[in-house]
Amino acid sequence: MRTQEELAGVSLLGENHTKYPTDYCPQVLETFVNKHPQNEYLVTFECPEFTSLCPKTGQPDFAKIIISYIPRERMVESKSLKLYLFSFRNHGDFHEDCVNIIMKDLVALMDPRYLEVTGLFTPRGGISIYPFAAYADAEHEALRQSRMLARMEGVVR
Question: Among this protein's residues, is 93 annotated catalytic?
Fold first, then answer.
């Protein structure tokens, strides 16, 4: 069981009156201590209802965002991640920008060993866009390169 000290940085979970940000808000992200930093394991989140806005037309874009990471000392709290991803709803940026922003914000937040973000955007104008961004520390650089190569070869989607 987690102690109150371990949960000190988690304020949104269990909150009865959730306030949804109306603008891009990385400040809403919260972390907690990884109780198993000696283990190398993968954590994956899927957000099937991600929305953002086209920066030129203001039309909505829809995607499934998949985030996978190998934690180090800190882990992202899922409710704060949900609110963070929701904060893109009125954010105008291209698909590729959204995926890279998410990756950079999570790397800055957690300092993971490895992290990747995939955006499976629904087609607009007959074209699907699936941006992929990955970060790795020196020890996991070969993993990042192999995942990137697999994406380029169409093996992983």
Answer: no
